[in-house]
Amino acid sequence: MSFFSLFSLIILSHAHLASTMRPLTQISEGTKWSSVTNSRRQLDTESSSSSSSSSLCRTGNPIDDCWRCDPNWEANRKVLADCAIGFGRNAIGGRDGEFYIVTDSDNDDPFNPIPGTLRHAVIQDEPLWIIFDHDMVIHLKEELVMNSYKTIDGRGYKIEISNGPCITIQNISNIIIHGVYVHGCVPAGNAVVRDKPQHYEMRGISDGDGISIFAGRDVWIDHCSLSNCHDGLIDAIYGSTDITISNNYMFKHNEVMLLGHNDDFLADENMQVTITFNYFGEGLVQRMPRCRHGYFHIVNNVYTGWGMYAIGGSASPTINSQGNVFIALDDKSTKEVTKHESPQGSAEWKNWNWRSDGDMMLNGAFFTPSGQENPGSYAKASSMVARTATLVTSISPSAGVLDCQIGQQC
């Protein structure tokens, strides 16, 4: 494929995306990366077994290829737990527990959670795979403070957490969040919140993140849509690690993603985060992500513009950018992908290991590398095999919440 036709395809895709965008409060389906139709996924699944169907609907996205070809996904939901890749690949969520069906979206009680509510589900001590029995818009009164070994699985219904405090993953492990639209999140706190059946505590004022990961590990956030929160859409700080953020659609927000507590917090030197197959859409300004210390693999994402910068950081993070598509805005001041944040300027950041490997730069976008070029310098910031950047224009995966219909391929 020529550069011109490739560029045209991406621009057409972007135009198609803008023209089909739903109003903010009604977003539920995934957002197509490409206007190219994958006809193989329209095969008659009724005349094919799951195994043969699986062999015929490969997209090149290893996460989706693991489960989306199965028309019986609803009966095999927990297969998803074995589909994670990257640094968060060991996150099993509630795979080894029972299903919990959320039936009540209206009665959030942070101190004495009511059975049938999402809050009651996420605080339990045992592993749980949490699903829903109808479309829901959940307005939380305080942060949704989760317990370990939980999966929130929104597939099959339109599930929104909005216009209130949102999700907190603090001092726990093994969390999967899939298929939820999180938006309009605001600070809360100075309130008593239960985080386990036998434990509650007074919470301070929260930041207003969409999903806040604080000293959490083995976390996987997949196929969510996130927008318009008070602080970050997804923030991971205070020694959090082993995280994969994949297949999400993020749009209409300023500070998108913070990874690392502050420049002096050395525990984040062990942080490892994979950011893959995400679609960074319209109206984003900065922090896609902003990194401190640690190791960050940013691979096979699509960026459709940034108001300030796309990828930034301080305190010598290792950034391995591979196979991404960066489409700069027309504004001449926003062409640079990267922002090295250092009081000492280039005398300091020139030694930070930041590389662009196989990225596609369009409409004048450019990446400022630094540090060493040899692959060994990025070993701890490598978590999966990068596909070529042209992959995202030759297939049609989707990012964000999917429109999964029971009895059909999702």
Fold blueprint:
Blueprint: H1 3-19, E1 31-32, H2 50-56, H3 62-67, E2 98-102, H4 118-122, E3 128-132, E4 136-138, E5 144-145, E6 150-153, E7 159-162, E8 167-170, E9 173-178, E10 181-183, E11 191-196, E12 199-203, E13 211-214, E14 217-222, E15 225-227, E16 234-237, E17 241-246, E18 249-251, E19 253-255, E20 257-259, E21 272-276, E22 279-280, E23 284-286, E24 290-292, E25 295-299, E26 302-303, E27 311-314, E28 318-322, E29 325-327, E30 338-340, H5 346-349, E31 354-357, E32 360-362, H6 391-394, E33 398-399
Parallel strand pairs: 2-3, 3-6, 4-7, 5-8, 6-9, 7-10, 8-13, 9-14, 10-15, 13-16, 14-17, 15-18, 16-20, 17-21, 18-22, 19-23, 20-24, 21-25, 22-26, 24-27, 25-28, 26-29, 27-30, 28-31, 29-32
Antiparallel strand pairs: 1-33, 11-12
Textual characterization of the structure:
The protein is mostly beta strands and about 400 residues long. Helices cover about 10% and strands about 30% of the residues. It has a domain at about 1-20 and about 275-390: Pectate Lyase C-like (3 Solenoid). The protein contains 6 helices and 33 strands. The strands form 6 sheets. It has a 10-stranded parallel β-sheet with strand order 2-3-6-9-14-17-21-25-28-31. The chain is globular and about 55 Å long. The model is unreliable at about 1-30 and about 35-55 (pLDDT under 50). InterPro entries: AmbAllergen, Pec_lyase, Pectin_lyas_fold, Pectin_lyase_fold/virulence, PEL. One of its GO terms (molecular function) is pectate lyase activity. Pathway: Glycan metabolism; pectin degradation; 2-dehydro-3-deoxy-D-gluconate from pectin: step 2/5.
